[in-house]
Specification:
Blueprint (H helix, E strand, L loop, with lengths): L9 H13 L4 E10 L5 E9 L8 H11 L8 E4 L30 H14 L17 H14 L6 H6 L3 H9 L24 E9 L4 H14 L12 E5 L5 H14 L6 E9 L2 E9 L5 H19 L18 H7 L2 H7 L23 E8 L1 H13 L4 H17 L3 E8 L16 E8 L6 H17 L5 H8 L13 E6 L12 E4 L10 E9 L5 E11 L5 H20 L5 H10 L16
Parallel strand pairs: 2-3, 5-6, 9-11, 11-13
Antiparallel strand pairs: 1-2, 4-7, 4-12, 6-7, 8-14, 9-10, 13-14
């Protein structure tokens, strides 16, 4: 093992990490850098230039190699592959030209099974949040706790796990990744799924923007847009790069320009699938917009593109081309990653056979024949105490917070609609390995969860259904919602989603804000096409001690169907139900709904549901 004294200088420590990386046979050159994220946390990144004789190695395999070689405190948080290491005129590595690794806001767990495994490990160790970069032993685990973990995992999941698996794992991340592969093809060498030859059924656009203060180089910005679309060819099916449109506009006109860009994309299906725009508000005041066709990529791809546009701009503004992290090769064949998503269509048909045509929620207006796809938003804040209590409910039922929230949402929908057969969608992370983190494409989708709430079940039974449904999407390789549209051939009225009308998304990570040199950049909230009736979007937050610090997010609603006041009441009712669940998680659904009725609605400016009164 490489010896690095903990009190050694940072520079000497970085050089020792670089030398350890060079010990891997597939590494030709390496550089170690400490990056500071948006929240101030430092992350050690090792950049690797692969040896010319070898196939492109997997970043997680190189990290596992370093975990066996280096002391725990020196193991890198991230390994980034670059085709060629950028050099200065003197021949040293140009550290400023290296791409800063993007931290996903969706969290580190790659599947429902991996997320559940991490939660079970946290329950055994008695910690609220597991540091996935450390090993079970480093986190205080010992042989008695290993035995308890093995028993717990075997009781919840159909996995084979041994004491050696736990004790020999270099990190929690590598342990969950290894267990998550059981019974599945190892797709780490599979090609990335090729983009669809035709536009699929689910249309619309994603939009992201940055409000920028400071001098912007318009030529560098336009070249950077060409750089990212050349890197991700799914955005340019005909080979034509998109042009950057520059217009003078007020900040109030931003939404208008987003809608115009979206309309332009949908009207030209054979042209570029991305549009960039720079709105000039004043000499040093701008809004930078990126609108992308949903047929080309998923929502996380948008986060990738914004970060890479900023990275390319930084390089071009300094007079050189950007250095890119290597991407796995795309090809015409569908690799294992795609086959896992689309396998077993018969199971998908059986699982969704005969769901209700629609849940009749308290709509304020009839559904129009041609929906406008406009959405409203109610800010939602779940306080730290309730956040902590809900995580404890999850552990009581050997599940995850996501599953508890899904069960609560299904309960709310059944109550509002007077139905017992409830279908909701939940976002499913499609980047199943580290090398896919910066791939732009339709890798993520929605898993479709179906709940049977007949017979007055207790809440724990509904949580068990949520766990079973989520794991079925993994274990039985159930197809995602986009594929189910094809195999089930459901009726698609208007422009709305044919399989579910309500969705829940929980983001468990904390993404980094994009950065531009010499410019203050703040993310913009932009309108996008909304195909659902309701969607609950939440993000977990934690304090400096990794204790639960609340859930932040919003309830989005179809403006065609709901008045804002109605959506506010639904959001407030859901918060009251969450409080009832936290107080009496063993109760029946009927009792929880009665308790929620008794819960006093928040009043005035202290309301948990933000902007409840206008």
């Amino acid at each position: 093992m490489t010896h690095i004294p903990e009190d050694d200088s940072a520079e000497a420590g970085l050089r020792a990490v670089e030398q350890a990386a060079l010990g891997h046979p597939d590494v030709a050159r390496s550089a170690a850098v400490i990056h500071t994220g948006s929240g101030g946390a430092e992350r050690l990144t090792v950049y690797v230039e692969p040896a010319g004789h070898a196939p492109t190695p997997e970043p997680d395999l190189i990290r596992d190699f370093l975990a066996r070689t280096l002391p725990v405190f020196a193991v890198p948080d991230t390994v980034v592959l670059v085709r060629t290491m950028p050099l200065t005129a003197s021949g040293a590595v140009d550290l400023e030209a290296l791409p800063v690794p993007r931290r996903s806001p969706y969290g580190a767990d790659r599947s429902a099974r991996a997320e559940l495994l991490t939660e079970l490990i946290g329950a055994v160790l008695g910690v609220q949040r597991v540091s996935t970069d450390e090993s079970f032993v480093d986190l205080g685990g010992h042989s008695l706790l290993v035995a308890r973990l093995i028993s717990l995992v075997r009781s919840v999941l159909p996995l084979t796990i041994s004491m050696r698996d736990v004790l020999d794992a270099e990190s929690i991340a590598s342990l969950t990744a290894r267990l998550d592969l059981q019974g599945r093809p190892d797709d780490r060498t599979a090609e990335v799924p090729a983009p669809p030859p035709t536009r699929p059924a689910l249309l619309g656009t994603w939009a992201a923007g940055l409000r920028c203060t400071g001098p912007l180089d318009q030529d560098a910005l336009a070249q950077a847009l060409r750089d990212i679309t050349a890197r991700h060819t799914v955005l340019t099916p005909d080979g034509t790069p998109p042009a950057l449109s520059v217009v003078t506009a007020s900040e109030e006109e931003t939404a208008v320009h987003v809608r115009r860009a979206s309309a332009r994309l949908e009207e030209t299906p054979d042209g570029p699938r991305a549009v960039g725009a720079l709105l000039v508000h004043g000499p040093a005041e701008h809004s930078l917009l990126l609108v992308v066709d949903r047929a080309a990529c998923d929502e996380e791809s948008l986060d990738v593109l914004v970060h890479e546009w900023c990275h390319a701009y930084t390089a071009r503004s300094r007079g050189h081309a950007p250095t890119w992290e290597l991407l796995p090769g795309a090809g015409p064949r569908q690799g294992a990653a795609e086959s896992r998503r689309t396998a077993d269509p018969a199971h998908g048909r059986e699982r969704l056979a005969g769901p209700p045509a629609q849940l009749t929620l308290p709509y304020d207006r009839p559904r129009p024949a041609q929906p406008s796809r406009r959405a409203g938003s109610i800010p939602v804040t779940v306080p730290a105490g309730l956040h902590r209590d809900l995580r404890e409910v999850a552990r009581r039922y050997d599940s995850t917070l996501r599953m508890v929230l899904q069960a609560a949402l299904a309960t709310l929908l059944a109550d509002r609609a007077g139905e017992t057969d409830v279908v909701i969608g939940t976002a499913r992370h499609g980047r199943t390995r580290e090398s896919l983190d910066n791939v732009v494409g339709r890798l993520s989708d929605h898993a479709v969860l179906r709940f049977d709430l007949s017979g007055a079940p207790r809440f724990g039974e509904v949580v068990a259904q949520a766990r079973q449904e989520a794991l079925a999407a993994d274990e039985r390789r159930a197809p995602g919602s986009e594929r189910l549209v094809d195999v089930s051939e459901p009726e698609r009225p208007g422009a709305r989603h044919p399989l579910f009308r309500t969705a829940l998304e929980l983001r468990t990570g904390s993404g980094d804000r994009p950065r531009l040199p010499g410019i203050s950049a703040t993310p913009l909230r932009l309108p996008t096409a909304f195909d659902l009736d309701l969607a609950v979007v939440l993000a977990e937050t934690f304090d400096d001690l990794d204790e639960p610090n609340g859930l932040l997010g919003e309830v989005r609603y179809a403006a065609d169907l709901f008045d804002r006041a109605t959506a506010e009441r639904i959001a407030q009712r859901w918060e009251q139900l969450l409080r009832a669940v936290a107080a009496n998680p063993e109760s029946s659904l009927d009792q929880l709904l009665t308790d929620a009725d008794a819960e006093a609605a928040p009043q005035g400016p202290t309301a948990v549901v933000g902007e409840a009164r206008r």
